[in-house]
Specification:
This protein is of the alpha/beta class. The protein has seven helices and eight strands, in the order E-H-E-H-E-H-E-H-E-E-H-E-H-E-H. Strands 2-1-3-4-7-8 form a six-stranded parallel β-sheet, sandwiched between helices. Strands 5-6 form a two-stranded antiparallel sheet. About 35% of the residues are buried. The mean pLDDT is about 95.
Length: about 190
């Protein structure tokens, strides 16, 4: 199996959830081909990197996990490839939400690293927006009512018919991710 993990805005492969999943796979499923790339700030460049990276992956034996902005990208990947997708507090309308973040930004995990979020990236996000999901049985999601950045109602509304674990509290980062890892792994068919 091949598993792609896509991190969120200002995040990285060093995020807690990405590292936790990588560690679990290394310990329990070393046969899984795991790829968690550092995504560039440009959505068009991020999409190009993703498309090139998964070009040779078997479509019937791959899945994608996406957190926040990575969940937006993961939805586009699932629609383009037909694979399963697990979304972790997915961004629904990043073109709208990230318009307020144009300018210099810092990485969460390496604050000394800076990048510039350009105005044209908003149009690049619009170009990647999937009008509506198809085959909702392919989609799973962990959505926190306590998300301080995104609306849980908007997130659940975007994925009608998906397998959703709606958390009463938690936060945008899903700080209690370990509690929900079994749900994620089971949906992705990674554990018995």
């Amino acid at each position: 199996m091949h598993l792609l993990y896509l991190h969120g805005f200002r995040s990285s492969p060093g995020s807690f959830k990405a590292r936790r999943m990588a560690a679990w796979l290394a310990a329990h499923r070393p046969d899984v081909c795991w790829w968690c790339p550092q995504l560039p700030p440009s959505p068009a460049q991020a999409w190009s990197l993703i498309a090139q990276g998964i070009a040779d992956w078997p479509r019937d034996d791959m899945a994608v996990v996406g957190s926040s902005l990575g969940g937006f990208y993961a939805t586009a990947v699932a629609e383009a490839t037909g694979c399963r997708a697990m979304l972790l507090n997915p961004a629904i309308d990043p073109a709208r939400d990230l318009a307020a973040h144009i300018g210099e930004q810092t990485q969460f995990h390496t604050p000394e690293e800076r990048f510039y979020f350009r105005p044209e990236y908003i149009d690049e996000l619009r170009a990647l927006t999937v009008p509506a999901i198809t085959r909702p049985e392919r989609y799973g999601a962990v959505i926190a009512k306590g998300d301080e950045l995104l609306s849980w109602r908007e997130m659940t509304g975007r994925y009608p018919g998906a397998t959703v674990r709606l958390l009463e509290g938690s936060d945008h980062a899903i700080a209690d991710f370990d509690d929900h890892l079994p749900f994620v792994l089971e949906f992705l068919q990674l554990c018995d």
